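G., before I forget:
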Amino acid sequence: GNSVTQMEGPVTLSEEAFLTINCTYTATGYPSLFWYVQYPGEGLQLLLKATKADDKGSNKGFEATYRKETTSFHLEKGSVQVSDSAVYFCAIGGSQGNLIFGKGTKLSVKP
Amino acid sequence: KAGVTQTPRYLIKTRGQQVTLSCSPISGHRSVSWYQQTPGQGLQFLFEYFSETQRNKGNFPGRFSGRQFSNSRSEMNVSTLELGDSALYLCASSSGQGASSYNSPLHFGNGTRLTVT
């Protein structure tokens, strides 16, 4: 079945640093790919999505490109802020009509 | 527009008891999904309901069940609680127009944290 593997954290960066969180996938067909973010004490929020190869999802300065040739969907941001501190989840559509999530990567941004 | 509301936020139960969790989706959303989040297993899909019918189901034992009402509100029930059922239970709603609800963005509630002692 479909699956995603994302880099393990935690990741600690200084404010204004460049962020990359790696995510690779295995899939049959061409499912949509997602990044969700979870702030402390809250549920998950959709950050961005891409529905087909070469699509770029973007939101709040974050970007990710659906790359079929490398089966990747890496999350990037050019300049992180303290407020970006959260847990980030890569996700892929599953055969049960559900989302299959990665283990999550905790990001801490220091001032 | 109000978001997804889950009640209660916290629950403490004893092994062997049963528990019911509630979820009110965003107005107009007909699909409700439930996920279990634990530090060890991460986020795992429990089931999805659409227009009062269970449309999809994950790999959980029969002790986990759910239902959806005509107003799209959903409840999840866990019977004969085990220590391993301690987790954050997340509900998500979507417009779910397609065969798979994930094609419409999922909107998550803040979860119910269940502790089994």
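The mean pLDDT of chain B is 91. DSSP finds no helices and eleven strands in chain B.

More on Monday.
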